[in-house]
Specification:
This protein is of the alpha+beta class. The protein has helices at residues 23-32, 39-47, 78-98, 121-136, 151-161, 165-172, 188-193, 208-220, 254-276, 286-299, 316-334, 337-350, 353-364, 367-379, and strands spanning 4-13, 58-60, 67-71, 102-104, 141-147, 177-178, 181-182, 234-236, 242-249, 304-306, 313-315. It has one domain (4-381): Creatine Kinase, Chain A, domain 2. GO terms for molecular function: ATP binding; glutamate-cysteine ligase activity.
Length: 391
């Protein structure tokens, strides 16, 4: 069975819902409690080594001081992913509380914020080199790692899953607000992220050597700082034998993150089987995939998506159902079919994190209430614990 791990970026917010630069203090608390990353790992990350997070579970810094990152250990089952995410969200929140704040699984801040860059040489270089793009960005994503045999299998997987990645953006959409305004997008994080020059979809690769040649050519342009800044929607890990899928918003609810992890593992296994069976790499130009990703960020699950097989607009619910059917044999073999099917049904019934945020705003007229609901949903699982709004 393929193993998996999940990394989540989380906002650190005050009682008024404003992101506050207490991430470093919260991480210092976590380190004293044995929950934070060690100094060597932090230094390696700041030097720009790709995938610098330790293999074990951790809390770690991010580009902005109003964020922290959590990472699960390597997991074999979705039940483990669920338990680990709940545990590390609780540990992150406890550390934030000690610093006078809370954590919120929001992919952008609903209220206006002035992002503060975390201290560190590499973070400073990002701001120096990329200017307003680096100064503005305060976004939180979710990255899912799934094990592969080697880089050859990993590239065969990347070639086949790339068509489905916009669907993952749609189902995790959790960022409708930016600087206090409704953006009219379900995932505005995905739009902001595209400002980085190395972000987005890729074309197919001939083999692992072809993939690595492209990465080397990108580095030789002098535009990206290092391999860690190769921000493809899905990429090979530079340090671990995994494929890393990076297209999702951080999910508001743990159960949606678990559904995402199950679908990603199902996609990886389905793609690897197809490659072993000699299946052809599906054709879709990266320009069309970029349009599909934009569409997913614009409407989430509430409108049409570009269907990965036809390139035509189809209702999002139908596309998500087709994704489930595409990976169903792999889900069944991993024992994930019931849990992921139920998770997809729940998403289609109650909507995404973006849908919840907008319902709370409509019910209360208050973006602070949106953040309170998100804080409750992040650790307690029930946004109604903070505000009387439909979940």
């Amino acid at each position: 069975m393929r193993t998996m791990g999940v990394e989540e970026e989380l906002l650190v917010v005050d009682a008024d819902g404003v992101p506050v630069p207490e991430g470093p203090e919260a991480l210092a608390v976590a380190a004293r409690r044995g929950d934070g990353e060690d100094v060597e790992q932090h230094d390696r990350a700041d030097r720009g080594d790709a995938d610098a997070a330790p293999e074990t579970a951790h809390l770690a810094p991010e580009l902005k001081a109003q964020q922290v990152e959590l990472g699960t250990p390597v997991c074999e089952t979705l039940a483990e992913v669920d338990a680990q995410l709940r545990h590390w969200r609780e540990r992150a929140d406890a550390a934030a509380l000690a610093a006078g704040a809370r954590i919120a699984a929001l992919a952008t801040s609903p209220v206006a914020v002035d992002p503060v860059t975390t201290a560190g040489e590499r973070y400073g270089r990002l701001v120096d080199d990329f200017g307003q793009t680096a100064r503005d960005v305060l976004t939180c994503g979710c990255h899912v790692h799934v094990s592969v045999a080697d880089d050859e299998e990993g590239v065969a997987v990347l070639n086949r899953i790339r068509l489905w990645l916009p669907v993952l953006t749609a189902m995790t959409a959790n960022s409708p607000y930016w600087q206090g305004q409704d953006t009219a997008y379900a995932s505005f994080r995905s739009q902001v992220w595209q400002r980085w020059p190395s972000a987005g979809p890729t074309g197919p690769f001939a083999d692992a050597a072809d993939y690595h040649r492209l990465v080397d050519a990108m580095l030789q342009t002098g535009t990206v700082l290092d391999a860690g800044m190769v921000y493809f929607d899905a990429r090979l890990s530079a340090r671990w034998p995994t494929v890393e899928v990076r297209s999702a918003d951080v999910a508001l609810r743990v159960e949606d993150a678990v559904t995402l992890a199950g679908l990603v593992r199902g996609l990886v296994e389905t793609a690897a089987r197809d490659a072993r069976d000699g299946g052809a790499v599906p054709e879709m130009r990266p320009e069309i995939l970029r349009l599909a990703a934009w569409r997913a960020g614009r409407s989430g699950l509430s409108g049409d998506l570009v269907h990965p097989r036809t390139g035509r607009p189809v209702a999002a619910a139908a596309v998500l159902t087709d994704l489930l059917e595409h990976v169903r044999p792999a889900l069944a073999d991993a024992g994930d079919e019931e849990r992921v099917s139920d998770g997809v049904a729940a998403l289609l019934s109650r909507g995404t994190g973006a849908d919840l945020q907008r319902r709370v705003r409509q019910d209360t007229g208050d973006l602070t209430a949106v953040v309170r609901a998100a804080v409750a949903a992040t650790t307690e699982g029930d946004p109604r614990a903070a505000v009387g709004a439909s979940s």
